[in-house]
Design goal:
mainly alpha
């Protein structure tokens, strides 16, 4: 079944897939961080911080790219509730891709912990030191991680639904850039 869905640009697809890998890696790194009290925690945190900043910067680029390169239209055969769900899930993904690194950076700032990227490169704190704010943001970061995981699962399920059940070109528009 073809609906003449156009493909995403190469830059859109590259940003999507690089961020997908980074976000999935971050979720696993985060799980590793909260499930250990060994020296691995420091190693994982050393990875977590710069990857989070990279995700934030890529998300900003992605928003700019999305505003300047409109995504292809959804298939005409999609129902109104499916269209609403598609748009809502993308808004949630973009919001979480931007918010999670900022909440993490703010949490670290409030905790008095520097954001070391690589070597001696440190980001400035974005919030004042405050144990109460740190505790609040830590909880917000955890809830955000669960929300991001849930939205990613829905996104993945929808991609498989479009690719394997509907076969409407939506999955191909993000994988190959060409629709059926």
């Amino acid at each position: 079944m073809s609906n003449n869905v156009q493909g995403f640009s190469f830059i859109s697809r590259a940003l999507h897939w690089v961020m997908a890998v980074l976000i999935v890696a971050m979720l696993f790194i985060g799980i590793g961080m909260v499930s250990t009290v060994s020296e691995r925690y420091t190693t994982l945190l050393t990875l977590h911080r710069p990857i989070g900043i990279a995700i934030f910067l890529l998300a900003v680029l992605r928003v700019i790219n999305r505003l300047t390169h409109r995504p292809p239209p959804l298939p005409a055969s999609l129902s109104a509730p499916q269209r609403v769900a598609a748009h809502a899930s993308h808004l949630a993904l973009y919001a979480l891709m931007l918010a999670m690194p900022l909440v993490g950076w703010g949490m670290q700032s409030a905790g008095g912990f520097p954001i070391v990227l690589f070597g001696q490169t440190e980001l400035p704190p974005i919030l004042p030191h405050s144990p109460q704010l740190y505790a609040f943001l830590r909880e917000a970061h955890t809830i955000g991680a669960f929300a991001l995981f849930a939205v990613l699962l829905l996104h993945f399920a929808a991609a498989l639904y479009h690719g394997l059940v509907r076969r409407d070109g939506v999955l191909e528009s993000m994988t190959t850039g060409k629709a059926q």
